[in-house]
Design brief:
mainly alpha, 0% strand, 6 helices, 66% helix
Length: 223
Amino acid sequence: MLGYDWPRLHAALNDLPAALLLVAVLFDLAGAATQRPALRTAGFWTLIAGAIGGALAVISGLQAEEHIDHGEAVHRIMGTHETLAWITLGTFGVLALWRIVRENRMGGTERAFSRGLSLVGLAALLTTAFYGGKLVFDHAAGISTPVLEAELHERAEGHHHHGSDGEGDEHGDGDHDHPAPAAMADSATTDSATATPATTAPDSAKPAGHTHTHAPGTPPHKD
């Protein structure tokens, strides 16, 4: 299905309906606070779109449940997540149908009751999202067993980077011994102080048998 299996499709369909339903509640609350009909209208249409998207998310989630590798812990959390998803969809679905029928005829009390129901739906939505996050981030639901095993093996081998603190790299632990500049200077000073100075022979010291000449006009002398 365009490169999507059911778990991936469910993940792709989750975010937008949740955002739409959240914004729908915020629009209604803002409309009630400011008495601006435009905000209430925006909340109405956002609610309809969010409820339709929520139905698609629930359908894909039911299919994803049958196509993922999981154990007992995931099964329990998945059951809670599914129950909350149905409560969320039911609450916003009833609210959407109610407003489609009564939107232009609601009195103040009826509209306040609909806002209260939308807050109940929002609480269910956030709790559903919380358990969905536990499935993915705490139990790796939706990741096939071979892929998960390969990832665990790769993590066990370790992977290091040079960071700003100089801790490791991908070739090892990253520890390299380099002398500090001050230590290098001290070492050079010590070496020069302890080295045996080269003996420079004076000009008068000449090897035996050496013949030298004098400048013109110099009186002869004996060596």
